[in-house]
Amino acid sequence: MPSADSPNDLRSRSTGREPRKPGQGQRGRLTGTLVALAVGIVHVIFLAWAIWPNRNNLNPDGISYLRLATYYAELKTPLMISGYWGPMLSWIAAVWIKLGVPVLVAGRVSMALSAVVFAWGARALLRAFPLPAWAQQVGFGLAVLWSVFWSIEYISPDLLVCGLMCFGAARMLRGDWVTDRKQNVVSGVIWGLAYLAKAVALPMAFAVGTVIAWLWHWREKRNGRQVWMGLAITWIACLAVGLPWMAVLSVHYGKPTFSTSAAIAHAVVGPPDVERYHPYARTIHKPDPGRITAWEDPSTMPYKYWSPFESGEYFKHQLRVMRQNAVTVLVLLGGFDVLHTGLIGLAGCVLLAVFHKHAAARSWLLLPCMAVCLAMVYLPVYVQIVDQRYFYFCYPVIWAAVCGVLVWLAATRLELRRVIAWVLGGVAFISFIAPAVLGLMVALTGLPDAASQSASDLAVRLRGKGIVGPVVGSGMVAGGRAGLYMAFLLEQPWYGDTAEPSAVAYEKSGARLVVVNRRHSVVTELDTHSAFRCLDERLFGSEEEASLCPVKIYELRR
User: Fold this and answer.
1) Do the beta carbons of residue 220 and residue 6 sit within 8 Å?
2) Where exactly are the structural domains of the chain?
3) Residue 200 has what pLDDT?
4) pLDDT band with cut points at 50, 70 and 90 for residue 17
5) Which of 159, 168, 240, 513 could form a disulfide with 114 if both were Cys (CB 3.0 to 4.6 A apart)?
6) What do you get for the CA distance between the two ends of the chain, in Å?
7) CA dihedral for 102, 103, 107, 113, sign (positive or negative)
8) Contact (CB, 8 A) for 488 and 63
9) Residues 471, 475, 481, CA angle at the centre, nearest 5°?
């Protein structure tokens, strides 16, 4: 249970409850621990179950992480160094690859481990707030359910980094964090590990750390010098963990570098006066020797970087991007539950802090502030409606906000208000658990992914016919770029694609295989061009069988 010294302590002063009997708290903690362990065991079973039906599912980011993991396992430098991707997920996958686990399975196992880190990190953060035991256990259970689905939705470090950030924030909310320098160091080390998972954790360490330190100083009236010294030690420990990797990146790129992802994420949302999307997907090019795709390290690709201070129009464009992203972030946060009660809970915490008569209520501002910290990191850059994975850190935060408001409503002798609180609590619970259970069912039966399934099937057919070589073309279908996925499975370089595919561009690419969507207009051009040979007849038994595949493959005649 959270310490009474927690800076967000809001105790009921009007419930009239009997004080706990001696030993009752200890028995409650033991029961809670046993329940958590049981849930954790079930969690691992679900994660293991979900690996097999989703083993072939891919995503572009996942391909990069798995290729980097392969380079780490084979000690291929400098291929294994990338400033765009955090190294930790690749390190974890590399261990499994080195042990002989197939690459795709290694990716799934690494995501399962990330889900475990996230679920227990969410539990640690929930326990840092003065919530009832039921709220903490239910929140942990919800995180367990969702993390199974999230572990198979993408191969990405988002579960891992958000779990570590939860652990880091929870450690800073401990009652002894202010006075115990060891706790300062431990929290800093956790934040440093989070940075190694994904670079976004570094600004989050500074932002969330500042908010928590301010709360300790303002709410608890702790010695300011002690608080800010503790924060400084936390930051120093965080940087100490991250500095070796920063040094590697700085030497690799020839300039001080802690990550290249922020600059690229900002570049692609620039004004539409020129093409600004990721060049790996909009240009035909050859990746560096030894790489499958330039997406493994896009840092040196010809992005069109820009600054909002270049002109008045650029500044206005930046404001439009931030306004649009603010709406997107609200939709993403609201999407964690059916009725958007999470957003209502965050708003309720603000109202509680402003209007509640007890000063302790102001500490509930921490929850919306933590969500705002993460939102502010992404406001100026590239965020899409499908990017909910960036905000997994906010899931336990919004659950805590909802429960905090409900606890306040129930903390009264007025029976009607308590009944209302319980009714609203039931509605919120259903709103949260319904999508979590649905996600679990999808994970256990297999997430449909036409692009990955097509790429896997075609890779087997091509390898069986001995037709392998460099690949060009996206073959965009539901689930992503089948062309890129197929190149990865064949271990052949992918030469990218153009925004407006044409037979002439593909002919000049130097690739052997061209992958396009079967319904794309370029198919007619390729069918009639003498430089291309359609492989439907060689790969499929009949035209009917070929028509069931959403992508079409051509071979360049030599």
Assistant:
1) no
2) 24-271+306-445, 450-556
3) 98
4) very low
5) 159
6) 70
7) positive
8) yes
9) 85
